[in-house]
Structures are given as C-alpha cells and as structure tokens.
Amino acid sequence: MLLQSLAGLPAFLVYFCTGTIAVMLYLFVYMRITPHDEFALIRNDVTSASVALGLSLLGFVLPVASAIVHSANVPDCLIWSVIALIVQVAVYYVVKIPVPNLSERIAQGEMAPAIWLGLASLAAGVLNAASMVYTP
Predict the structure, then answer these.
(1) What distance in Å separates the CA atoms of residue 127 and residue 131, rounded to the nearest whole number?
(2) C-alpha to C-alpha distance for 88 and 79, rounded to whole angstroms
(3) Region of 109 on the Ramachandran plot (φ > 0 left; ψ -120 to 50 alpha; else beta)
(4) Mean pLDDT of the chain
(5) Which domain holds residue 53?
(6) How far is 119 from 99, CA to CA, in rounded Å?
(7) How many domains does the structure of the chain reveal?
(8) DSSP for 1-17?
C-alpha cells in the first residue's frame, strides 16, 4: 500500500523542481524589470512592496500550477511557464500606463498602487491559468 502511494513520488519531484525553477526564474526576471528592489524594500518593512510582489508571484504561480496539471511533459510545462512569465511582465507594463510612477510610489510605501499592480497580476494569472488547455 505504501509503495503504491509513493509510486508518483518521482513525477512529483520532477514537477515540483520544475515549478521551483520557474519561480526562481520569474523572480529573477521580474526584479530586473522593476526599477525598485523588492527584497530590499521588504527587508526595510515596506508593506507595499511585499503586497505587490506577493500577489504578482501568485499571478505567476497559478498558471505554472495549471501548466503542471495540463502539460504532456516537462518541456511543455516549461514552455507554458515562460508564457506565464511573459504575461506577467506585460501586465507590469500595462499597469504602469494609468500610474506612470508606479515603482516610485510602491518604493515610498503607498498601498494603492501596490494593490493595483498585485491584483492586476493575479487577475491576469487566473485568466492565463484558465486558458491553458491541453490538446494532444
């Protein structure tokens, strides 16, 4: 019984590691496109940076989770994860249109722009995840 339960462990480890690598790649890219240093701000207790980054990360992880569930294999999962990353980068730039000084305001600790960015990222991530349909 225990061996049957553990039969999926290798696949779990492969996809969990794939997802973890995708998250690290996302954070690396995302932190390069934003003018403010999210982790430095978070270390300095700037809540707005934590909210914006955390919700953005959720907006990325949702489609990655969908890619893990719907992908035919690991390379397919990675391709869809890259697409999710591109969507999140695009959201950042679109959200800046009505709030051109978005990064500066987040760095100053303003919550409204952080919530706007974070929830827009989350909304795009939900749409992205729902749009990932596997067709053999």
Answers:
(1) 6
(2) 14
(3) left
(4) 94
(5) 11-131
(6) 14
(7) 1
(8) -HHHHGGGHHHHHHHHH
